[in-house]
Amino acid sequence: MEPNADKLRGLCITSLDDEDDDETELPNQPLPASTVTVAAAASGYDDGDEDEEAEVMLGFLEKPKHPGLLLRHLFPSKAGGIPAWLDPVNLPTGNSSCCGFCGEPLHFVLQIYAPIESNAAAFHRTLFMFMCPSMACLHRDQHKQWTRNQGNPRRSVRVFRCQLPRTNVFYSSEPPSRNNSDKPLCAGAALCHWCGTWKGDKICGGCKKSRYCSEKHQALHWRSGHKNDCLQIINSSEASSSVLPAVGKVPARTSWPEYQIAIDDEVDLDSDGCDEDSSKSLVMQKHGKPDDTMQSWMDQFEVFSRAFSLLCLPT
């Protein structure tokens, strides 16, 4: 993604005027832009009840005290890094995982753990947001929405929902103890060794060990050093696991910095004090002066949040 966040500020991703279709509840199901509101994501709020206010939660970026706190069996809300898939087996594949314009794999932006207590099928529920890092694709996406083309629209930003009942094959039905003893009940699908995000359906023809989600990521991994690693694996009598990156250990340049999202109740603000800098003031009050990396994330997520809110507007 281009480092200059100012270029993102001119982008405004709107919602589509598509008719609501019957949805099939599937793991990691892509959502039409018109079917989710931010309030509903947080609390399962019913839009038909106009007399009851939706509960609004605020998210603050924090550096995790320990990387293990962001593993999937702890049901994290997080930004950057690689996704902690709720359903680690049935991942989006094919066109669902790629930009509708350039065809490249989408980059993970953030995920929010938002269970619905009143829905047994959504005892665990997470929303995942992905976007293409190409500004050209984001602008083309905006233009396509302005033209209101009928049919299946191409998108450079996608939101997926995944939900599971309390009793499932992936996690214990008991809450995690968070004392380093928690473990998932089963392993997930093999992921791409370059991005660590999408399912690694393609296998290196040389070592037969490294897996990739796309030919582009295979080529990038090859040029970044796998060419030598591949020969070592082939020449070794027994492939060493230390040669290949462990799950979650992907090249740092392929993902955005990883942060935990701490969820708090909305702060009651004086209406006279609610200016354009109020969100940044809240972060300053809660966490002190941000460093350069945090400030960059704040600038970028100011735009991401606008785009996400517009994507989630009901039609």
Automatic annotation (TrEMBL):
It holds the Pfam family zf-MYND. InterPro entries: Znf_MYND. Residues 192-230 form the MYND-type domain. One of its GO terms (molecular function) is zinc ion binding. It comes from the Eukaryota. Keywords: Metal-binding, Zinc, Zinc-finger. This is MYND-type domain-containing protein.
